[in-house]
Amino acid sequence: MIIYGITFVFFAAVLIGAFRSMGGEPADAVAASAFLNRMVGWVTTERDSVADLGDGTVDSAEPLSERARAARKVLAGYQQQLTRFEVAGDDAAEVRRLLSQSIESLGWACRMAEIGTLSGNDGVATAAAGLYAHAGLVLDAARDIELDGVAVVVALTPPRG
Predict the structure, then answer these.
(1) Residue from 24, 32, 25, 155 nearest 95 by CA
(2) Are the beta carbons of 104 and 76 closer than 8 angstroms?
(3) What is the pLDDT of residues 4-21, one digit of tens each?
(4) How far is residue 125's CA from residue 14's CA, in Å, rounded to a whole number?
């Protein structure tokens, strides 16, 4: 019986320690800068993976719907990371807001591409191209904001799971 008690106390301590280490407090400025820098690079990479959305014309033989589906899933994960990441400071909060807007626009453009009606419907293709362009403008605005004297211009390989 004592072994069960010791095991229970051990696992309770581990769970409490894990819970406390996972947060609730805003990240310091350096961690926020590094995270947001990487996130800008990752979102840019996903935007580039569906670059043919930007011209409004898509060849139906290309597997754009598959690339769009994959990009949308990755972008949804980035959006979840952003919503859980608390930042301190107005500039970091602005970059986070702009990233969220860009991810949302790209997500909707990818949803339109997933349906597979871009080549047969000029209106949907134009809307997807507009959302793609909006995401690019918002990403450019996020890059222009400096965090702690370091411009948000980082091109890293995004995590793929």
Answers:
(1) 32
(2) no
(3) 888 887 877 777 766 666
(4) 52
